Amino acid sequence: MGNLSTLHEQVFTNCLIAEANYAGTFSLCGLVLRLRDLYKWEKGLLPWTEPEPSVLMEWIEHRETSWDPWMEKDFRPLMLDGSLVDPFDVEAVNAYLAGSGLVYGAGFVEGLRPTFFLGKITETKEMDGAVVFCVEKETVRDVFATPAMRQGTRIYIRRQPMLSFLWDQIFEMRPSARSALTFAFAAYGLDVAQVARHPGQHADALQTIARNQLHTWIYHELGEVHEDAFRGHLWHDIVATYPNTPIEIYARVLKDLCADTDDMGLLRHIINEKNQAALAFYVAFLRPFTRLMFPEILGAFHRFQKSHDWNLIENARNQAKATFHSRAATLVAIHQEHRHRGVEWAKEKILEQCIVPLGIVKKAQSSPSR
C-alpha cells in the first residue's frame, strides 16, 4: 500500500475535472443547491444547518475558480504503486485499497456525468449476486454525489448523501409529496411538520430513517442487476446516443421503473417486508416525470392509506411491470432501427411513439435534474 494521501489528491483532481466539465449541465439553481450540499459536507455540517449566505457564496466562487485549470481536460490515470490505472477501473483501485478500510467508487450518474469518491467502509456484504459496500463517510467526493450507485455487481450505498437527500425532501415538501411524507413519518411516530420546523430536535430519528431508507434502496440496485428489459449494453447505448434530451430522461426513468417493479426489486422487497414507511417514502420521492409514467402506484397508495391492503400494491406492481417492459421493447426496437435510418429519424420516432403520448415532452425538456 502506497501513500493514501497521494491517492486522495489524485481522486480529488478527477473530481475537479468532472465538475469543471459537467457542472454546467445543471440549471444555475440546481448547481447552487448541489454546491451548498458539498460545502456542508466539506465543513462537517448537518444537512439542516444553513451557512451564512455570504460565506457560502464566497466558498462557491472559490470552488468554481478552482475548475478553471481543468476545463476540457481528460481524467487523470491514478498512479498506484508505480503503475498507472484507469480512474474508472474500480476493481483495480479497490484491490489496491484492500485492508485500508476505504472503498473507491467511480462511474456515471444522470446526464452521463462522471463521478468519483473515496469513503470509509462500515460493512461489506453479498446480496443476491451483488457485493454491497456501505459507506459511512466520504473522505473525497464531488458535487455529483448520489446515495446509491451500482457498477456491474458492485453496489455503493452512502449515508451522508442519503441524509442530505432526505432533508431536502422534507425542506422542500412538494405538495405532491406532502401526504406520503406525512404517512411515512407517522409510521415512525413523528409529525413531519414538526420535524421540518425543529430538525435538530429530531436528529437521531432522521439519522435512523436515512439509514433504513438507504438499506431499502439496495433493492432498487438489485432490481437493476436482475431486470432484463434492456439486455447487454442496449440501455447504455441508448443514453449515450441521445444525451441531455427527453429521450435520455425517458430511458433512465423507464430503466429505474423496470428495476423497481422487478420480482427482485425495491417494491417487491417493500411488499414482502410490509414496510409502510418505505412504501410511503417511495411514493413521496417520485419525481414529476416518474409520477406521470407510474400512475398505478399513486392510485394504489391512495387506497392503501385507508385499507393497508398490500394486494393493492402488488397488483399495481405487476400491472406496471408489464407496461414498462412493453415500453422498453418499443424504445429498443426504434433505437436499433437508427443504424439504418439515422439518429434524427430515431429521435423523431421515439418522441412520437413513446414520449408525446405521455404529455411530458415540455416538462422533460424544462425540468432540470437535481
Task: Write a structural description.
The chain has about 375 residues and is α+β, with helices and mostly antiparallel strands. The protein is about 60% helix and about 15% strand. The chain has helices spanning about 5-20, 30-45, 55-65, 90-95, 160-170, 175-185, 190-195, 205-225, 235-240, 245-260, 265-275, 275-285, 290-295, 295-305, 310-340, 345-355, 360-365; strands at about 80, 85, 100-110, 115-125, 130-140, 150, 155-160. The chain has a 5-stranded mixed β-sheet. A two-stranded antiparallel ribbon has the order 1-2. Helix 15 packs antiparallel against helix 16. The two termini are about 35 Å apart. Residues about 365-370 have low confidence and may be disordered.
Structure described in brief:
The protein has helices at 4-22, 28-43, 53-67, 90-97, 159-172, 175-186, 192-197, 203-226, 234-241, 246-261, 266-273, 276-285, 288-293, 295-307, 310-341, 343-355, 361-366; strands spanning 78-80, 83-85, 102-109, 113-127, 130-141, 148-151, 154-158. With 370 residues, the chain is of the alpha+beta class.
Main features:
370 residues, alpha+beta, 5-stranded mixed beta sheet, two-stranded antiparallel ribbon, globular, disordered C terminus
**Helices and strands: which structural class?**
alpha+beta
- Order of helices and strands, N to C? HHHEEHEEEEEHHHHHHHHHHHHH
Number of helices: 17
Count the E strands.
7
Low-confidence stretches: 363-370
Q: Strands of the biggest beta sheet: in what spatial order?
A: 3-4-5-7-6
Identify the overall geometry.
globular
Amount of beta strand: 5-15%
**Number of discrete domains:** 2
Percent range of helical residues: 55-70%
- Based on the structure, what is the oligomeric state of the protein chains? single chain
Query: Largest sheet, if any?
Result: 5 strands, mixed
Mean pLDDT: 93
Q: Report, as a whole number of angstroms, the end-to-end distance.
A: 37 Å
Roughly how many Å is the radius of gyration?
21 Å
